[in-house]
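Board notes (copied after class):
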Amino acid sequence: MTRVRLLLAGLVALPAAAVAQPPAPPAAKPIPHKAELHGDTWTDDYFWLREKKDPEVIKYLDAENAYTAAVLKPTEPLQEALYKEFLSRIQQTDTDVPVKEKGYWYYSRTVEGQNYPIYCRKKGTLDAAEEVLLDGNELGKHEKFFNVGPRRPSDDGARLAYATDTTGFREYLLSVKDLRTGKLIEDKLVKAAGFAWAADGKTLFYVTEDAAKRAHKLWRHTIGQPKEKDVLLYEEKDPLFNLGTARSRDGKYLYRTSDSFTSSEQWYLPADQPDGEWRVIVPRTPDLEYSAEHRDGVFYIRTNKDATNFKVVICPVGQAAPANWKDLSPYDPAVFVQDIDVFRDHAVVAARVNGLPQLLVRDLATGATHAVEFPEAVYEAGLGANPEFDTPSVRLTYTSFVTPPSVYEYDLKTKERKLLKRQPVLGGYDPERYATERTFATAPDGTKVPVSLVYKKGLKKDGTAPCLLYAYGSYGATMPVAFDPTRLSLLDRGAVYALAHIRGGSDLGRTWYDDGKMLKKKNTFTDFVACADHLVKEGYCARHRLAIQGGSAGGLLVGATLNLRPDLCRAAVLQVPFVDVVNTMLDESLPLTTQEFQQWGNPKVKAEYEYLKSYCPYTNLKKGAYPAVLVTTSLNDSQVMYHEPAKWVAKLRTLKTDPYPLLLKCNMAGGHGGSSGRYDALKERALVMAFVLDQIGATK
């Protein structure tokens, strides 16, 4: 470790933020907390930081924030410059593309100087008078945090059900507004994890959560009736499953779904019979995953039955046993089927082939199929909002590292497309100034791992450029190669942006996901290390000018990587990081724990405990030199509790031997995504980018 420290210090002069003499960092008081499992004992000195209501905890977090502000004070001019650059590229007063649903055009718009969207509609035509449904700025004007969640109009358009969160803890309160009178019928009726209308416009189905925020109960509510009269229809008692509810696109059925990470179960109810009997499509079966959509008496089912990368089958409603399933098209293991959307005359399958998204359109009358063509070699594409069932065209979304988010209207029969809107990028943005490519790193087991890159043209691959490497690698999530106007501030300063498509995601199919979870999780970390080493070896960047970044489970990735290879980079950013894996997975009272035993492992199983312990970032911190580190969290985060990153920082402070900063920034009013207001969110992003640019020497 001493050699690493000298190597890092000798390669590059310390930036201003590291040279300045900040106050001494906070030192959390160690209070030993002993635990034992499988004959293994350990002491957690910072267990007490989980006591959110303890004034000493808040005092410590405030001290960390003050220390971070002091260390980053020399970067404040850069933060301000970045924030102004971000704003200068954004059309602050803007309107998104209206979406037609049951005779109305729905859209949202923003106004310069206001934090939140305004949700509106027009009846019949876009030339009609605007009707404001919800004004987020008015609703949230007295809140430190505010977010409007799902919004769903009744079939006749007379009522709007919507959910709002004022805590950041994903506590969405369900309300119903009478759009004819503007009055609230139900004001914050209940904390709901999801909801759907019946066809009558007066019956609402909603899902509630248990103490650990697992969606587990389905209720039926009659508008205007006291909540005490709501009927409990179903309780999901298996802690591995989450409950959900939805409505089919054709409006015929309501769905009740129970999903774990390895199996599914879906029930259906005629939407015009809210008091009727629910029927199961296929009873839950170990390792059988499926989801169904309806059209003309037929279920279209995406499933992994006899298809590792999933396929689509069809069967008559009421005859949904797997013995009656017929392939919509032959299974192709090279095509990873991610979703299917069914319309009156066509079905659209969202898939990935060779790691790139594809949309496959099928004429349901003739069986003719075609793939939607896209112009770039590296991109992201998918279906946009398409609530209408009877439609000859659909909305497509498209973006890339250099192409701003774009919405097209695509004729499913003629293949003609019309650009409806491309996100404006002000200030003379020219995509021709930038280059994108995909390269491949080789993992220790020989697996080729794709890395998507974007940089300003003229890059010299001589190992001198700075670089920011980002990855996630969990839950089967695919990392979109998407445009970000704030990233231009990084690229215009000569830095490379790299996105690693590591195992644990589904970028290259279901096996790619399976090979990066449970007892194969370490592939995620070694893939990431291989990507960083590849970028240095191929001359895209220099080691001492490389920063790595990840959020949530991606924060676990960065934390585990720092333990594996503290010499890998010059700086690291861990945002709302899941770094206390063993302790969190042992606490079933915390959100997300029990459901994710199939994702990470159950530490009550000895072999799984030993594997979790072997890579847990918090458990494996050791004395030695680390790069400069910035950790962000939020006091009201419900997905990764604030105490995980707080404990990790407190412990690392006692172990690090290097001269580089270790900073914790806690948003005292935010959630998993930080601040809710768009301007505050940009300021948070400017702070993170200023830290990165300062550490890798790319401030100008």
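Comment from the instructor: The longest helix spans residues 678-696. The radius of gyration is 26 Å.
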